[in-house]
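Homework help thread (please don't just give me the answer)

Our assignment gives two proteins as sequence + structure token strings and asks us to describe the second one. The first is just a warm-up. Here they are:
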Amino acid sequence: MDKDKKGLTTSWGAPVGDNQNSMTAGSRGPTLIQDVHLLEKLAHFNRERVPERVVHAKGAGAHGYFEVTNDLSSFTKADFLSEVGKRTPVFTRFSTVAGELGSADTVRDPRGFAVKFYTEAGNYDLVGNNTPVFFIRDAIKFPDFIHTQKRDPKTHLKNPTAVWDFWSLSPESLHQVTILMSDRGIPATFRHMHGFGSHTFKWVNNKGEAVWVKYHFKTEQGIKNLAPDTAAEIAGVNPDYHTEDLFNAIEQGDFPSWKLCVQIMPLEDADTYRFDPFDVTKVWSQKDYPLIEVGRMVLDRNPDNYFAEVEQATFSPGSFVPGVEASPDKMLQGRLFAYADAHRYRVGTNHNLLPINRPQSGVSHYQRDGQMRSDNNGGGSVYYEPNSFGGPEESPQHKLASFEVTGSAGSMAYSHDDHYTQAGDLYRLMSKEEQARLIENIVGAMKPVARDDIKIRQIGHFLKADAELGSRIAEGLGLTEQIDFK
């Protein structure tokens, strides 16, 4: 054997003498249980798949960097935004929402847009979508919503009746539904779509002064979308089309990039703005709060191993760094728990020890033990706090900014219930051709719904957003005579 060529070993490091033939009792005899190399290979193979993500199961990812281009340190003390020209490594994962691991990339579905910033103060995860809003605004509705997007437990098929039944009974979904059914519902590639933090967050500066903030990643490749017929054809020919496109673009040196901008709202405006600024089904008008450039994200390196880096990457909107905090957004508040808990179940309680998730800043804490502990488990160091042995201590300068809370505890709804203005404004901003395609997409998606009363209820929401939009959908579904247009 070539002396420079490495010999095959078992997982415990012992040399393997034969990797082609299992041990048997004679040439035809049964396999011997003492063939521990065979047993280990089969046992490991049976366990090679971790549970897929409940949502965002199908995705692609890439490494890159974020570079600050505008000094916003007066608004936030976040170290990775501290000076123009500063670069921070990032890992970004794009995904569809509802499909399984083997599903097609080119379906009509929101796209996940998650960025992990490996900052000097720990990892900061910005976990959003390619849309600025979402279907619901309270996390208590999320399991029910996702159930409608998954497979029917009886037929194991997608169920349009469940989808539109839920949406028609949840009018807050109308804005996102309008976006989803528009041209932007099927991006041409991951490179040709915007990304959004979607939620409202809080920025805090070194003086303890705070503002509300929304994130916008603007693609520098330009927006491109797929026509439904083209998307369906691609889904049949190459279901991994978006994954392949991202990998090949980076491999060929055509590095995709996005400009990061933010909208900033003074804290006091939250009490007087015409929409609740923490309602994730609504946007802030850019006329009221213009986009401010922050920096530029470039993806320039493909993963070396998909499973280790893309599949085992874990993102949580609760992974904050000093200078960035949560807002009262009810959907965000639920995600602060749900995402990290999903990773503890799917990848393991020590998922942040994996190389793709490990903070480059290092960690100092008292968490010990648990499955898949891959470091020295703290060695013999002190394992509790407070202690008298010089263990890591809290940093009072990094305490979260306080905020005022008022009212009675209870199951409270948002006080603003205008679910129609922004959806109608979006429709009226579209060209005639875009409007026609939107209506065609909605009609096509609603035709399979089993009950007319569900269709009629949903048409009622479209009518409230824009009378023309609703009437054209009713006409397309053949339900004009059953609709009260008053």
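The one we have to describe:
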Amino acid sequence: MVKIREKLNGYYNYTVILTYLGMLFGFTGIVYVTEGQYSLAFICLMIAGVCDMFDGAVAATRQRDINEKWYGIQIDSLSDLVCFGILPAFIT
């Protein structure tokens, strides 16, 4: 019997949790910038950086199939764009 790992909106496992957290901090930082709270936005940027620093190490702890790896690569790229492209542009 074959397990079906695909869900409605992608592949879910613990290896992308830090990526999701980093992206959440990126979006939160963007909201803080629009409210004029630049120090909180900068803190969100630093926390997103810490999450990005360790998400690859966490992803390497589990064997994943090619679809899960591809999904992780794509969601990490999106997170990097939000956290280190859009958020710093909003801060400056």
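TA reply:
I won't write it for you, but here's a hint about the kind of observation we're looking for: The chain has one domain: 13-91.
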